[in-house]
Design goal:
Radius of gyration of chain A: 19 Å
CATH class of the largest domain in chain A: Alpha Beta
CATH architecture of the largest domain in chain A: 3-Layer(aba) Sandwich
Number of strands of chain B: 18
Number of strands of chain A: 9
CATH architecture of the largest domain in chain B: Alpha-Beta Barrel
Distance between the termini of chain B: 24 Å
Structural class of chain A: alpha/beta
Strand order of the largest sheet of chain A: 7-6-5-8-9
Order of helices and strands of chain A: HEHEHEHEHEHEEHEHHEHH
Mean pLDDT of chain B: 97
Largest sheet of chain B: 8 strands, mixed
CATH topology of the largest domain in chain B: TIM Barrel
CATH class of the largest domain in chain B: Alpha Beta
Number of helices of chain A: 11
Number of helices of chain B: 14
Distance between the termini of chain A: 21 Å
Oligomer: heterodimer
Strand content of chain A: 5-15%
Low-confidence stretches of chain A: none
Helix content of chain B: 25-40%
Number of domains of chain A: 2
CATH superfamily of the largest domain in chain A: Aspartate/ornithine carbamoyltransferase
Shape of chain B: globular
């Protein structure tokens, strides 16, 4: 099948989803990110990879953390950075998504980093940009959040060495989670032998096992013997209603507490893509506990985004 | 005009006729098949050697964009598309702006389409005023004005009681209701079939139960009210099983499918191709196979184009924001031929789904080649290959899941009421 993310040399030209990317590319991104981490530790923060390149961050949906880390990564790579909060500007005036893109292309854009509420929006953009213009998906609907998944892979590899013998559990609202989908594809591609998803039936998408995961509805069973626990954010608007009766009941049955975490391996690490709802999907004792690597994720996120954008700028025409 | 259609392969699905013969048209009707009627003076000859002569296609659902699209001259472009596709009679969907809910609107539509002299247009009345789902339209008056049936299109009914009352009232006049079986609340927010593909792509799902729950409600209310119902655009395997059971029970229940759903499944969405954004959504491969099977066993009476022109501004959008629908009139015939070829369906049987099948549902004497029947005819070249090129389509709708696909079968002549309304030389 045609892969819109790779050129005919097999190089990354857009990062839209972790699905369909070969393990070779995923490892290349992680290795390159490790280089930036090492350089940073040696005091070398600034690089010239994107010098002279114009990057637009197009956030059609709110985000603070992802946008900030992208901006930091771009500035460390010496790019000319422009961040647009689109809800407040053009689409409100009736301009279509593609009109916006073509206008910014006319201003000399080399790269778009896009967050959009609709699944697939970055694919539409990638299909319509000029050759040589790269698109990075910074989160689209429920579909994908590939840079988040890659920084999670980086974090797992950093603490666990490799993926070959790991059991990873993803807990909570899988249905609405672009992060979970991207993590699942990345983990299975990188050779993780067992990926579990744990949640009530209302928060698991249909046929999710077809993605190559084991399904658990009981958190305590699902956490048995796992090496990595990833808690997902539960959106406020989903806490009460027909999906779930209450945040409290969710916390009692699916929230990560110290007692439940004890069922995982003693050296298991705990991750969360942020922002956290303390006391809902994760208790403070776990979020701030010794097994938590949540702040490491944030740190590595910058290096991973640098690696992705640098690789995109290197792809041959 | 007396027309002699010479040496074509004449197929009449209704009577199972499939033979090379001459066909004679006189005074707008089929005068004879085989030898010329006594005293027939040929005024025009159509050489049909190597071509197939069939009844003009009867399409149960097409959107013509009028009322509402007058400034774009849509009626003309869509009816030209119809005859270019061999469609000689079509039901016009009532989800226009304004909705087709008043006799005066129906009369105006009929006058305009008759003046154009292209395909016959059979208006479907809006089931409720403004298609708003709560007040019934004036069924009897609208029927007198020319509506052949009543449909709620894709718009929801306010509640089950409105549906119940509509059935009781329609049964009073022997009117068939056309219903799109979809539970609006179960489908709420969905943009793709709730299955493996939607899960992978993160697209909000429309579960199959949105259709089957609606069908079960309709079937129970039919038993109670005695109403006749035609289900529009069925899409699920289980729904078809329920329909077959209800028909076996003796209910006056029929159904159609769109040509898109005969060929495609959710997997064809690929990387969010908004040309695949349709209503109902493309279902699973298993559902598509069930549709193909139900066409053969007679559960599905007709394949329709479900022709829906959508403009660029409404289609070049992220999948979930794109307007559902595809242009269909000009690809219906070759896609039926492709299905027949792929599944080894005898041509008369395959063509029945777009001629005698829908004609019988509508009570028309079209869709057949009997002597004395209206000379609504389609003459096509079954071997001509062509590539679906959106810009070259006559319809104002340029979006189709089949864009770029090579299809076989090209309409050469279309006759409506004995008049040549379309011709294209090879």
């Amino acid at each position: 099948m045609y892969n819109p993310q790779l050129n005919r040399h097999g190089e990354l030209i857009h990062l839209l989803s972790t699905e369909g990317l070969p393990a070779r590319i995923l490892r290349q991104i992680l290795d390159k990110a490790a280089g930036y981490v090492a350089a940073g530790e040696a005091g070398e923060k600034k690089h010239a990879d994107l010098a002279g390149k114009t990057v637009f961050n197009l956030f059609f949906e709110n985000s603070t953390r992802t946008r900030t880390t992208f901006e930091i990564a771009q500035k460390r790579l010496s790019a000319d950075v422009h961040s647009l909060n689109i809800q407040a500007s053009s689409t409100a005036k009736g301009e279509t998504l593609l009109d916006t893109i073509h206008n910014l292309e006319a201003m000399g854009a080399d790269m778009f980093v896009v967050r959009h509420a609709e699944s697939g929006a970055p694919f539409l953009i990638a299909k319509h940009v000029k050759p040589g213009v790269a698109v990075v998906n910074a989160g689209d609907g429920r579909h994908a959040h590939p840079t988040q998944a890659l920084l999670d892979m980086y974090t797992i590899r950093h603490f666990k060495g490799d993926f070959q013998n790991l059991t990873v559990a993803i807990v909570g609202d899988i249905l609405h989670s672009r992060v979970a989908r991207s993590q699942i594809h990345a983990l299975t591609t990188l050779g993780c032998p067992e990926v579990r998803v744990i949640g009530p039936k209302t928060l698991l998408p249909r046929d999710v096992e077809q993605l190559g995961v084991r399904v658990f509805h009981d958190l305590q069973q699902g956490l048995q013997g796992v090496d990595v626990v990833i808690a997902l954010r539960l959106q406020n608007e989903r806490m009460n209603g027909a999906l779930l009766p209450s945040a409290n009941e969710f916390n009692q049955f699916y929230g990560l507490s110290r007692e439940k975490l004890a069922l995982a391996k003693p050296d298991a690490i705990v991750m969360h893509p942020g922002p956290m709802n303390r006391g809902v999907e994760i208790d403070s004792a776990v979020a701030d506990g010794q097994q938590s690597v949540i702040l490491d994720q944030v740190t590595f996120g910058i290096a991973v985004r640098m690696a992705v954008m640098s690789m995109l700028s290197e792809a041959r025409a | 005009m007396n027309i002699h259609i010479q040496n074509g392969r004449v197929i009449d699905p209704k009577y199972g006729l499939d033979t090379v013969a001459d066909l004679y048209v006189q005074a707008g009707r089929i005068a004879a098949i085989g030898s010329a009627p006594v005293g027939f003076v040929v005024e025009q000859t159509i050489d049909a050697v190597g071509l197939t002569v069939m009844p003009g296609i009867v399409d149960l659902a097409a959107r013509l964009g009028e009322p509402g699209g007058e400034h774009k001259n849509k009626l003309q472009s869509e009816l030209k598309a119809a005859v270019a596709g061999g469609v000689t009679s079509l039901c016009a969907m009532p989800d226009t702006k304004p909705a087709l809910d008043q006799a005066s609107l129906v009369q105006m539509l009929r006058q305009k389409t008759e003046a154009l002299g292209l395909a016959h247009v059979l208006p479907l009345g809006a089931l409720t005023r403004g298609l708003e789902g709560s007040e019934l339209s004036e069924f009897a008056k609208l029927s007198a004005a020319g509506c052949v049936a009543f449909s709620q299109a894709d718009a929801p009914l306010a509640d089950t009681r409105v549906l119940y009352r509509a059935m009781q009232y329609a049964a009073t006049y022997g009117i068939t209701l056309r219903l799109r079986p979809q539970d609006v609340r179960l489908a709420a927010g969905g943009v793709a079939h709730d299955g493996q593909v939607a899960t992978r792509l993160g697209l909000p799902g429309i579960p199959a139960v949105a259709e089957t729950v609606a069908i079960s409600t309709i079937v129970l209310l039919m038993k109670d009210s005695g109403a006749a119902v035609h289900l529009e655009r069925v899409s699920t395997r289980e729904g078809l099983e329920m329909i077959a059971a209800a028909r076996a029970y003796g209910l006056k229940l029929s159904c159609d499918v769109s040509i898109n759903h005969v060929h495609l499944a959710d997997i064809d969405i690929g990387y969010f191709d908004s040309n695949m954004r349709l209503s109902p959504p493309l279902r699973s491969i298993s559902d598509r196979d069930a549709i193909q099977h139900a066409l053969l066993d007679g559960t599905i009476a007709a394949i329709c184009s479900d022709h829906t022109p959508v403009g660029n501004d409404d289609k070049l959008l992220p999948f979930g924001e794109a307007a559902p629908g595809a242009t269909g009139l000009e690809v219906l015939l070759p896609l039926v031929l492709a299905w027949a070829e792929q599944k080894h369906v005898p041509l008369p049987q395959a063509l029945a789904t777009i001629t005698s099948g829908p004609a019988a549902l509508l009570g028309l004497d079209a869709g057949q080649l009997a002597e004395g029947a209206p000379a609504d005819l389609c003459v096509f070249d079954p071997h001509a290959e062509w590539t679906v090129t959106p810009a070259a389509l006559k319809s104002s709708g340029k979006h189709t899941p089949f864009a770029g696909m090579a299809l076989r079968g090209k309409v050469r002549y279309t006759l409506v009421g004995g008049k040549l309304v379309y011709s294209e030389q090879a």
